[in-house]
Structures are given as C-alpha cells and as structure tokens.
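Per reviewer request, we include the raw input and output of the structure prediction for the construct analysed in the revised manuscript.
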Amino acid sequence: MTDPFEPRREHRFTFGLWTVGNPGRDAFGAAVRPTLRPPELVALLAGVGAYGVNLHDEDLVPFGAPAAERDRIVAEFKRALDDHGLRVPMATTNLFSQPVFKDGAFTANDPAVRAFALQKTMRAIELGVELGASTYVFWGGREGVETQAAKDPVEALKRFRHALNFLTHFCRDRGYDLRFALEAKPNEPRADIYLPTTGAMLAFIETLDHPEMVGVNPEVAHEHMAGLDFTHALAQAWERGKLFHVDLNDQQGPRYDQDLRFGSANPKAAFWLVRFLESVGYEGPRHFDAHAYRTEDVEGVRDFARGCMRTYLILRERARAFDADSEVRDLLAALRADDGSQSDVLGAYSPAAARALLGRRFEPAALGARGYRYERLDQLAVEHLLGVR
C-alpha cells in the first residue's frame, strides 16, 4: 500500500544546504557530525524525496575562493543537481558570518563595508541566476545594534533602502527574472534587528523604487520569537500579494532562534499555518529552514528531513478532514450567516450610507449575549489534529 505521507517531488519541499549540512556545532560545543560536501547533500535530499535545495553563496563557494575554484565547485554542484533531478528555487547571500559584517552589511556605518556588501550580493545574485533561482532572499542578520548610540535608525533604514533599490535596478539592468523576499527577525545575532517583523517589512517594501519586485519570506521561528502568530503574518503577506517564499520550522516560545524540526514543538500552530497555505492555494516551495538535533548522526539528519516533510503532509490531511467535517461546516455557516439587513451601511461609503448608519437603532445587549461556539470549533480542530475524529 502506498504511504500517503511519503514525500515526493511534486510536493515542492526544499531545504537549505545550511540546514541538512549543519554539523551540530553551536555556541557551546564543536561539530558532532561530518561536514558533507554540497554534492553529497544533494544526494541526501534526493534520497528522502525533496524537490530542491537552496543556498547562501558561502554554503557552496568558500569566502574568498579564486574564480577558477569557484567555477569548478559550481560546475560540480550543477552536475549533482542534474544527476539527482533537484532544483535551486531560492538563493541568498551570507552577510553575517565574516568579521567584515560585524556592524552589519547594508546598514554598516563604514561606507566601504556597505559597498563590499553590495558587491558580494551582486556576485551572489549572479550565482543564484546561474543555478536557476527565481527568488532571492534577504535576511539582515547583522543589520541592527546592541546600543542605540551606535546608529541613527532613520539613517539605517535609508541605507537599507538604498541597497535594495540598487540591487533591484541591477537585476532589471541585467535582465534577471528574480523576485526579492525580505526575511524579518526581531533579534539574534544582534540585540535588536531593524525591520523585526513581517508587518514591518511589508510597510518598508512600499517605500522602494520597485516594490512590485519585492515581497517577504516569513519564518515560523522568527515571528514566534517576537511573540506573534505566524498564520497572521502569512495572511497579511498573502493579502498584499507579497508571500514570495516561506520558511518552515518550529520554536519553543520567544527565546533564541531554535530552528526545530517542523511541527515538533507546536503542532497546533503548524496545523493552522498548513491549513492556511493549502486553502489559499500557495504554489511556492515549502522550504524548511531548520536543523537536526545536535544528538544526531548523518542518518539522524535524514530522519529530520523526512520528519519535516511527513509532518507537513500529515497536517495537510488533518486540515482537509477538519474542513470537510459536517459539524465544522455547520458551525462556520452559522457564524458567517448574513441576512442582508446591514448591507446598506456596510458597503462603500456614501453620504446616504453614513446617514442611514447614524440613524440605525442597535440592541447591544442582545448582540453581546450571543454565543459563538468557538470552544466547540477549537475542540473539533484539536480532535482532528490528534486523529480521533
């Protein structure tokens, strides 16, 4: 019998080289797994049913590598992609690991650092285009401060805006068919990072020269670190036509960025976000930006990758069952029922509608006495999530 939760290419699941390639090194301990080469990681992902692999420039080409070495590495990687049938839907630039970026990249105080950050990103964009990427992500890992004395936040936003405007013009000038996706995070590795939430990014995008080229890449853990609901971030981005990419993982509360296996910490929140993505018809890759536990060997990394994808597929099935449940349908129909009695005042503004609304009598006590059955709805969701209904 075919396993309905077995990942397949058509599910469009992707992982970063930095995710499955993480050797388990952290701030308190050295690596616990061998560092696999990019072609080996491509083979690993192909073996577990992934659709594609994403990368920072330095995940593939070491920082400062000579041009001949760069070309050799890229050619070897492209052969591995062809051999295993994987794609590179998204690419990005590492603007946070090297000491040169300790004060940020696009917002650094030193103009030479800002210029170098632009140069590095332009070359990384060329690499992404060469590999077939259609989305380019910007995460401002060091774009922030520990002390407000360090930078003028207004000037920092102007610098960030200049960088994105420069790069959108660069892509248009070169004829690159790329969309930019901005990724928000409230803190870590800086104490405070500029544009810390998806909502802040959406507002900022409207100030750019080419806002039509720029959307967002919300990440589960990053929104939860800010104490926010991830599905609401997705909805806001989707409603504005700006959900260009999505990073899936999990997080236990507003603490350091944990990048846990998708659905492993808060399956209920994962249930709602999967239901949202599936219900609105999101067609982009489902990208897992997470890491295997430090306790794992390479086989454990495979378990981790399979687990991310299987959990998504299980939650998709559970969400479909919830939406098909007749009791759920009846409850939602009752909640959303509209007898048309307010249609004359809830449409577009007009002087007549304003006069009618000002003259209308309401019964607040009766309206306030209504029960909405949200407890029952939520319990039904929990029962579907737990597989007992």
